[in-house]
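Students often ask why we bother encoding 3D structure as a string. The short answer is that it lets us treat folding as translation between two languages. Here is a chain of 98 residues written in the first language.
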Amino acid sequence: MRSDGIPRRFQLAGHTIVVRVVPPSKWRHGKDCVGIWLPDLYRIDIMSTAKGSNRQQIWAHEAIHAMLDIAGHDDLSRDEALVDRLGHLLQQMLTTME
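And here it is in the second language, the structure alphabet:
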């Protein structure tokens, strides 16, 4: 686990999902994108300029995409509003657990 609360990797259904924090100089996903789930690579990339709880929420959003895709619900994974709501809930749950 990184000091910012996002993992370096995690497991879903036997797959290892790698989480990379990428500097702007190496970002290849477009200037309006700050995070992306790459299902063919089982990887989440997050722009390094995202900090703190924003970075956590980006990770949670992309993790929800990963969960839905791996569970066979790619139709739900394309629903950005749903993914965003679930990502915010996941981030809050993980950061407020006692």
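Translate back mentally: The mean pLDDT is 96. Keep this in mind for the problem set.
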